[in-house]
Structure formats: C-alpha cells, structure tokens
# Entry
Amino acid sequence: MDDLTIDRALELARSRDGHHVSLFMPTRTFVPGSQEEDTTRLRNLLRQAAEDLVARGARPAQVEALLAPARALIDDRPFWLRAEHGLALFIGPEGMHAFRLPARVTESVHVGDRYHIRPLLPHVDSRGEYWLLFISQKKVNLYSGSREGLAQVPAAGLPSSLGEALRWDDFEKASLQFHVNTSAAGGRGTPIYHGTSDPDIKSELARFFRQIDRALRERLRDSRAPLVLAGVDYLIPIYRDVNTYPHLTGDAVIGNADIVPLSELHKKAVAIVRGLAEWETRQLANRVEEAWGSPKTTPDLETIVTAAFAGRVDTLFLTDGSQSWGTYDAEAVRVVVHRTPAPGDEDLLDLAALQTLDNGGAVVSLPREEMPHRQTAVALLRY
# Structure
C-alpha cells in the first residue's frame, strides 16, 4: 500500500510509457459480507479494464500479466480487512500502486497512455497537510499531520519538555501564578498576573518558546503547511507572541496535552485545518467573483489548458466528477475538444489539473452548485 501524497500523485501522472489502468471504486469498512461485495465490484472493473486494453491493441497475454497484481487482491483477505471508504489502483508497466481513500469515490476505469489522477486530488489536497506542535510540562513534540493521522517527526534543537528546559521542579505549580482569559476555541487572550517572588514566569516561557521557534524555523523553512498549537490555554498566546512561522493557525487545540489522547488531538487538529481550508476556498471564490469578466478569470477550456501548460494558472476550480475529452498539441499550442471520447483523447480537465499542480498552482474540486457561476471549470490566472 503506497503513501498518498500530492508528490506521489504527480509522479504517477507523469508516467507515459505503455498501457496505464486507473481504477477507482467505493469500498466498505469491514463487516460480514463486505469483502464479497467489494471483490465482486473489483472483478467487474477488471473485466472492463481488460476489454479496454484489448481495444487499445494489447495482446491477451499482456493484459493478463498487467492485471495480475490487481486480480491477486481478490483473494487477499487481510487487504480487505483494512478497507476504508474508497480504493484507487494504478496498474502499469512498472507494477501496481494501491491507495486506500478516506472517502467514497465514483466507480470508474480509465485506460490510456498515462494515469488518471483527478479522483485522487480531493484526498491529496495540500491544504489537508499540517504540523501539530504539542507543548506540555512533560514533553514537546512536533507531528506531521494529515487526514489519516499524526506522525512524530524530529526537529534538531527542539527542547524535550517545558519542565526540563526551564529547570522548574514543579512547572504546573509555578504556572498557576497567572492564567489567561481566553476562548477555548482559539486560545487568544490577555495574561493576568498574580504577585509572586518567583522569576517572571511569562519571561521564562517566552525565552523557552523562542528556543522552540528557532528549531521550527529550521525544520519548517521550506513548508507552507499550517502549524496548529496544542496545549493548555495560558501557553498559547505567549507562544503566538514569539512565533515567526508565517502559517500558524488562528485556532489551537486547547487542553492538557499530557492527558489528551493522540487520537483526540488529531481529530481536533483536522477540524481546525478543514475550517481553514474552507475559509481559503471561500476567499479564492471571492477573488474569482471580484475578477469575473476580466482577463484574470476564464471558464474557457481551451484557454485553461494552454494557460496551465504556460504556468499561468494560480487556482483551478473543477466540478466534482466532470470530464472533458480532447487533445492538446504542445508544439502547435492547440486544444481540440470533443463532445464524446475519440481514439487518442484524454481528459483535458485532468491534464489541466496536472499542469497546474506541476507549476505550483492549486486545484480545488467543488460540487456543481458551489462552482463559480456553476461552470464546469474556472481558472484564476496569475497574469
């Protein structure tokens, strides 16, 4: 089972040698009878793939050899025991790549000169990737996060805990000298101090957080993913004051990170990142509306494809499940659109999405009713 990342999807889409089969199907998390249902669906889709391969000129022996790894899954009981809500199989000369998907996908088979990646894009949206900084008395950890889970990652120079770094025997007792009047949702507020003969706790915490910030600045220097903080409420605003990472989220996971299960931290972090992604999508849609009718936006497919190859597409909005068939001649810079698939055609929306991502742009998949002006595709152009 391969790791599903945007870079992996792009790597697959660039493969051009030989026959390529892209198979998508909904699956069921394991219950009695689910394996039989899913393997029957897989058999039917592989039968369709075999017919399409023969129609493209593949010999029967080639077809059997190409599809053999996928056929082997039918009797692989452990594979189906770990089923999620969707499955993507990419089968080509180099072998098979399998991805479990966290959401249902429409059942489909695509056979062509390259893999069809568009159904993957909602699951590898770079906005679903994030960092989680876990701060507590006993430990300080950095996690790489996705919709699927959290994985701890090393960061050179990152202190191991608040108590150890500040050399306080009882950090929690010392920290009670002040508290923060803050909302549980965002972790924002103003510190309220109480008289004490101990060192200035806020200054000590700020000094410690600068150590963390320096370590993160080096570890995350090439990243644009959001950073979510997790910790007790009075720590969050102090960290914000010294933070220099430009993609720190406005909301935080509030609570004692020592006792909150990692699964709960993940669940709350995903909700924060999802909310941020939805806000960013609305902002992008607003930019499209403001620029509608100007040269900065276009729903014209021919213009979108040529602009994507030229690196001019900042954001490409695509209707979920839509397809537009045709050809693109890179030398002549010419797009031909067909109403129905013809021999040699490919999905031009898939091609535009690939080129947009390859050139550093973003691709957003939306239901038809949420698309700008209900178009099939809309590009927000850089120039």
Remarks:
- The chain has three domains: 6-124, 127-280, 292-381.
- Residues 176-199 have pLDDT under 50 and may be disordered.
- The two ends are 40 Å apart (CA to CA).
